[in-house]
Protein: GDP-mannose 4,6-dehydratase
Organism: Tessaracoccus palaemonis
Amino acid sequence: MSKRALITGITGQDGSYLAEFLLEKGYEVHGIKRRSSQLNTQRIDHIYEDPHQRDPHLFLHYGDLTDATSLTRIVQDVQPDEIYNLGAQSHVAVSFEAPEYTADVDALGALRLLESIRLLGLQDTVRFYQASTSELFGLVQEIPQTERTPFYPRSPYAVAKLYGYWITVNYRESYGMYACNGILFNHESPRRGETFVTRKITRGLSRVFTGLDDCLYLGNMDSLRDWGHAKDYVRLQWQMLQQDIPQDYVIATGVQHSVRQFVDWTAKALGITLCFDGKGVDEVGVVEHVRDGAETNLLPGDVIVRVDPRYFRPAEVETLLGDPSRAARNLGWAPEIGVADLVAEMVEADLQESLRLAFLRNNGFAIPSSVEH
Ligand code: NDP
Ligand code: GDR
């Protein structure tokens, strides 16, 4: 019999890659989707099978991490071997605006799932993965960060995830559950949400390059992150549930770069050389050179990146750098996709989409608004 997995957050970046990965491994995959006023399954449409067909392997259930009864019903119906709790209000900046909701979903959501497993008497059979985060380290106490580095969360999101982390450890220790935390550092892909900084950059600069927008507005350009590819990271989520003993793991590349560096790589991938003038809120990215043959109307001297303090956070996490030695030792972790390939893949996907939209617009068709309101 094939194994059965239940994924919360299946419609998100990681959920979609994990579902693909598990289906390839022969799993029966169940996902929880939220009711929304518009379809929100775009990231998994390509793997969704028509339920009218015989023998589908992917099933979707309506539910919500704020709704314990829906979670218990789904866990009871599905009787999963493995649960991956990836669902979250995952945007750090938004968590300052919606702190209570973020706590409800990200902290209590994890508790609700763990309790449903326990109340249904499945604690000896279900394996549970909690999507923990490098944001737990926040104001870093040690560089690089390991599984033993003390936490110092710096946002309502990170504080909520701290609860999720500890309640997972607590259920493991109290009830002997196979439950573990993946402390994952930032991971990106063409499926990354449009308002996270990497995707905002690849999408935003592609739109400027093709004439859809004039300028890309960003926040803290000095911020340092350890960026990997989501496809690599979901493999480790699965691997953490295949061990003899449940343990928490840092997953990272061990290399960090600045937001400014990511802008620079993206511009280069598009055929533009940028120089950065000014400091802080006055900082701008100016076109220095456009590669011969690059199909754009941009000219040297054009200002195409500006800092907008609207994107500064009330408390910032300035630097994150992971030390994934434990995962390398016990799980054989080594990232397969480097940051250069990650940027190239993201730029290619966003450039194609921008070219498509520019073509439509230039031929008189209405196109959707681009910006984050
Ligand atoms: P996304 O924001 O892309 O996806 C979040 C998912 O959670 C979506 O499917 C979303 O549904 C769902 N969701 C949101 N609110 C609820 C709710 N109330 N009930 C049920 N589902 C909900 O995040 P990622 O895929 O990037 O991240 C996956 C997990 O890993 C998250 O928990 C995130 O906090 C954590 N994480 C991510 C890292 C990263 O770099 N990507 C690093 C470390 C941790 P919908 O599509 O309807 O919005
Ligand atoms: P992060 O990712 O907060 O690390 O959380 P994000 O890409 O949002 O920010 C990274 C850094 O870039 C700076 N920044 C900007 N960020 C955004 N979103 N928009 C901007 O315009 C901008 N300009 C500069 C930020 O200040 C920050 O320092 C992500 C999420 O996926 C979490 O769910 C996850 O837990 C962590 O990664 C690990």
About this structure: The first strand starts at residue 4 and ends at 8. The first helix runs from residue 13 to 24.
